[in-house]
Amino acid sequence: MGDLRAYAALGTAQLRSATSYRTSFLVELFGNMGATVFDVVTVLVLFRATPAVGGFSLREAVLIVGLSSAGFALADLTIGNVDRLKSYVRAGTLDAVLVRPLPALPQLLLMDLPVRKALRVVFGFVVLGLAVAANDIDWTPGRVLLMALTPIAAAAFFGSIFVISASLAFWWVDSGELGSAFTYGGRDFTSYPISVYGGWFRGLFAYALGFGFVAYQPALALLGRPDPLGLPAWSGYLSPLVALGAAALAAVVWRTGIRHYRSTGS
Amino acid sequence: MDQRDASVPTISRISPFRASATTFGALIGSGFRRYATYRQATIAGTFTNIVFGFLRCYVLLAVAEEAVGQRPAGYDAGQLALYVWVGQGLLSVIGIWGWTELADRIRSGDIAADLLRPIAPVTGFLAADLGRALHAMMTRFGPPLLAGAVFFPLHTPARWQTVPLFAVSVILAVIICFGCRYVVNATAYWLQDARGPITLWTLGSGVLGGLYFPLRLFPQEVAVALWVATPLPSLLQTPLDVIAERDGPALQAGLVALQAVWAVVVLALAGLVQRRAERRLVVQGG
Amino acid sequence: MIKMQDLQKHFTVRVKAGRLRRKKRTVAAVDGVNLTIERGEMVGYIGPNGAGKSTTLKMLTGVLTPSAGEVSVCGLAPVPQRTKLALRIGVVFGQRSQLWWDLPLHESFELLRHIYRVPAAEHAARLRRCRSLLDLDEFLDTPVRQLSLGQRMRGELTAALLHGPEVLFLDEPTIGLDVVSKQAVRAFLAELGATGDVTLVLTTHDLADIERLCERLVVIDHGRVVHDGSIEALHARYGSRRSLVADLEQPLPADFALPGTVLTAVTANGHRVTFSLESTTAAAAVAGLVAAVPVRDLSLLEPDIEDVVARLYTSP
């Protein structure tokens, strides 16, 4: 209870500092939504040139991009800011976080909660809603449950990727943009049917790293479509398990990273 | 001794033009060396460029595969792949994102020191940016192109003028991009905080510059309007269309000429904005 | 209160070996430190740059994980019990702010009350005390980003004390401050130490901090403790002496000698002389000098700790 109160206080403080520059805040709020809008517009533009991508129609593709966008936007809002860890490590701000009586990760997230990304979440879920309406889904209890869990599992999965990518800074401060290959790259990867990707690249991202289970496999299960790549029909229901696995791995990497932290400067 | 005394009153035997060219060259060199120190970040950034190259290339090729006549927006598969990979290489050469130095200096007040230098801020920052672009051209352009060539069949330019035109187009694109970023950053002279305009720039420049997909996929009127009314397609779309030989020789050269016009317009605008801002600073006594 | 036993911290650094190759090398920032600090002590922890001062402090506060050795603060192990320990210690890192940049100072204090779960009445009482001792009132409503360095440091001190810590760690608390702020900070810490409830460990470059505040001095160099004791003990050990400076009516005779002293300087055309008191008392030396030549003015200089430490650092 005490901890929750502390977190709430931290969150409110961040909200107040963010809105202390009002004009910039509003521009950023809408600007950030624009980023998600463009992801969806890209899909629409591509489908102007072709009736199908990777064997999937526009309606089906929008369901995939909707699941991916909603999950990613949710993760980006709540956890995405952990990617600033490298600047905290470089500037030594992490020291101040570590001497407070709360776990470091939630503090870091709340210290800089990117409220400006809130509208992205709204937009992501609107697209998802439209996609669900546009597809003729045969609703079974299992599919309803899957529909409810998939965006959350996707958010948990992306959140874990954010944490793991950011933890890289504990070992390699100058990792620069490397993390975005997996965070934003992962979002781009999951925005399309994975049948568009070739050979080893698809194997690596979809199955070894698990991105195939974020949007593509659940979308197949919701649509009742067999996987052209041959995975069984129930594999779409694995997405919460894959997300749990990723979260467990992220926790281990984070803890190891904190132990490995070498504070710089005096 | 006599000789030295005699030479004092004459300012310099070097012509003023050559003197300022030397200064400009020195500034380019310092911009180059500054980025040369970020070796690890260069490696990390190159890796990321390559990953995004794979993602974009596969998607566009999948579009081509099922498009009518397999030529979406007039590109064949080899041209699309070249478009994507050269684009990934050029991304950090043009340097669309992440430059907030001017806005930061304005906010902290350090800009006052730049105003005291005998070289105009626009010129000084341009020289440094050209140095940065040169460094990026030598380190970050090649690897994505190489990766693309290894894993995808790339279009090979057939016309003799394509590569020289591409080189000119890239230089113009660097100048236009610098000018745009300068104007966006300079809003910090008026707004307390330029984060808003920078967000809008980051957003618009990527999509409307042609990074995510070729702008030719838009309806033709929209694409033409963007090209003529905004400098954004001149950032990436033009150099990429030039190297991919999307158009006939006349239009290919015409697009570069349009870039040249935009380069002049944008630099003039940056200069104007800077002069206005300086006058404002003087008036406010800030 | 604080125990360190053979405490070590190693860092691996990569050094260039040829154009592209890098060699790994292990550097011991802290190389076997043994220290025990009792409740209520005020300890100054000094050493040259890179000697391992801050690294030690960061291991004591749970920021860094020791490579080897034992460490305990308030009976807790800093890294595994970091959040528990945080409730019982206060930390001021001179160059890292604990405060919220965009918020007024008093809001940072209010936030810290929630984070440390301090009862409102206790919090208010401590804040009242700090406000009056540190003169916070004039800038309590100012956003932290607009505070001067001295004002910010007074805010940081308050922030570190609002939860009533048993141990206060200060890393360079006076660095970069103007003279007035330095004195305010020192006076406040002296007052705090006088109560005897708080154990105080501070690292500093400014030896005036130590002379004013700490009865115990720990000097560290190359990750090892080279001196642990009082300032006087340091002088005794490194042969620093008090000196007698005299302004004379006329220069000293060439063959003059003052028993038990060494003449270390003659300036102002022979009118000002400095004797180092090697094996005599100040009274005897003064008496001897006044008996031999007419003296206009006299002063006795305490040994300069700065010199001692400088000598300590430069000696191999």
TrEMBL record, chain A:
Question: A Pfam family this protein belongs to?
Answer: ABC2_membrane_6
Source organism, top-level taxon: Bacteria
Could you tell me the keywords of this UniProt record? Membrane, Transmembrane, Transmembrane helix
KW Methyltransferase (keyword) present: no
Q: Which parts pass through the membrane?
A: 25-49, 61-80, 118-134, 146-173, 194-216, 236-254
PANTHER family, alphabetized: INTEGRAL MEMBRANE TRANSPORT PROTEIN (PTHR36833:SF1), SLR0610 PROTEIN-RELATED (PTHR36833)
**What name appears for this protein in its UniProt entry?**
ABC-2 type transport system permease protein
Q: What is the lineage of its organism?
A: Bacteria, Bacillati, Actinomycetota, Actinomycetes, Micromonosporales
From TrEMBL, chain B:
Q: Which protein are we looking at?
A: ABC-2 type transport system permease protein
| KW Transmembrane helix (keyword) present | yes
Q: Where are the transmembrane segments?
A: 41-61, 81-99, 163-184, 196-215, 252-273
Keywords attached to this entry: Membrane, Transmembrane, Transmembrane helix
One Pfam family here: ABC2_membrane_6
Q: Which domain of life is it from?
A: Bacteria
Task: Tell me the organism.
Answer: Actinoplanes philippinensis
UniProtKB/TrEMBL annotation, chain C:
Major location category of this protein: membrane
List cellular component terms (GO). plasma membrane
* Annotated keywords: Antibiotic resistance, ATP-binding, Nucleotide-binding, Transport
- Supply the name of the protein: ABC-2 type transport system ATP-binding protein
Q: Which GO terms describe its biological process?
A: response to antibiotic
GO molecular function ontology, one term from the record: ATP binding
SMART domains, alphabetically? AAA
Q: Domain (ABC transporter): give its ranges.
A: 2-247
Q: Which Pfam families does the entry mention?
A: ABC_tran (PF00005)
What topology does the record note for this protein and the membrane?
Answer: Peripheral membrane protein
